[in-house]
Write a structure and sequence with these properties.
There is one protein chain. The protein is mostly helical. The chain is 45% helix and 9% strand. The protein contains two helices and three strands; from the N terminus they run ααβββ. Strands 1-2-3 form a three-stranded antiparallel beta sheet. A hairpin with a 2-residue loop joins strand 1 and strand 2.
Length: 161
């Protein structure tokens, strides 16, 4: 009788350990799912921040290109030949800066794509083919961005309208 009681306790103990093991596996699986959801939300939040930076920096380039054009000495107005001309405008005897520094593209981390006209820079754009999250709520100057599907379609052009 003592032996059958001992065997019954062992079976109950093994059964309890099996339920504990299954419970731990379920907790680990649920934790993995929760972490993957957090990762997706974090990635989208980071992409939205990069979008805000892209809009700010792109607008800085647009304004600098327009400033360079408008402050052309003499009669014929001219756009810059290189982005470096926006940082240090050598057309004047004193240092003139239209842009404090050359900003990196926050989306692609590569060089900016250049919108040119007759070899002169009239605008910049990100070279990223990544899909844009923001689809509406753009400033008036950039309302056309709502129709764009990727960041390389967001063109920051410094043409006086």
């Amino acid at each position: 009788m003592a032996q059958s009681s001992l065997i019954g306790n062992m079976r109950t103990g093994q059964l309890t350990q099996g339920f504990t093991f299954i419970g731990i596996l379920i907790i680990v699986a649920l934790s993995g799912i929760a972490l993957s959801v957090v990762g997706i939300v974090w990635h989208q939040s980071l992409q939205r921040e990069h979008e805000k930076e892209l809009l700010f920096i792109g607008d800085q380039y647009r304004a600098a290109i327009l400033s360079y054009y408008e402050s052309t000495p003499g009669g014929a107005k001219q756009y810059p030949k290189a982005l470096e001309d926006l940082v240090l405008d050598k057309r004047f005897p004193v240092v003139k800066r239209h842009l404090r520094k050359l900003y990196a593209d926050p989306i692609s981390k590569q060089a900016w794509g250049l919108v040119t006209q007759q070899g002169l820079i009239i605008g910049v754009y990100s070279q990223s083919h990544q899909a844009a999250i923001k689809k509406s709520g753009f400033p008036t100057a950039y309302e056309s961005f709502s129709e764009a599907t990727t960041y390389d379609e967001w063109k920051f052009i410094g043409i006086n309208s």
